[in-house]
Give the backbone structure.
Amino acid sequence: MAQKTYASVTVDVNEEGYFTDPSQWTKEIAVEIAKEEGITLTDQHFAIIEFLRNRHNNGEALSIRSINHSGVLDVKTFYQLFPGAPLKKATKIAGIPKPASCV
Amino acid sequence: MEQKNPIKKVNIICAKGAIEDVYATLVMGNGAVMEGIETNIFFTFFGLDAIVKSRMDKLHTGVVGNPALRLPGGMRMPTLLGIIPGMEAFTSWMMKGQMEKLDIPPVSEFLDLITAGGGKIYACKLAMDMFKFKEEDLSDHVSGILTVGEFYEHAGGEGSQIIFT
């Protein structure tokens, strides 16, 4: 297993950089991962990150559609906040596994 | 995974209007948008039903001449059963229910997701003329009506792929 250091904390990640233990995550760490992805986190980013983490902790699958049901923001804004591959980037920054869903 | 020649753009053509044909296109297209790949989807012939407002959320799956279709439990569905009135509607309803469980949205909502991520939807001019559709029959997701030549112009570029579903 690989390790990475963010905000002077060493965390366990897989070969793609996703956390293998979401409990090691902190907001300070998220800021550092986001920087690597070229994103500066705002309150809106943190709101959707919290939604993603809660959903993961409840054992619910993540899909792009579920973002519309988050009550935090819509899919269009999600794409703007995490340009490129939003669900992959957002889950990486949120310290949870990469979604295994095709939708 | 880092690749030497990543796919940068996909151009997907959908020429059929059964649930499974349209969803193959939508899943591939939405998947590409989610990966940050530039995406164009071109609907032609019976595929136009997926972007015609009055038809898009009422697609059916064929129950006659579909040898892969099975009854609940796994037994092959005899073709003759397919001619029973309501069988096609029932089978289509079952399929939509199964998809909903997997968080696969209805066609119109799927197009919302694709266009929200920057994916572009196009209709084929020739098929529009052939089926006598007008621009106002099409859903608001559609960016334009293209000739074949215009489609190829849109499809150009390095790392671009054309997929016929």
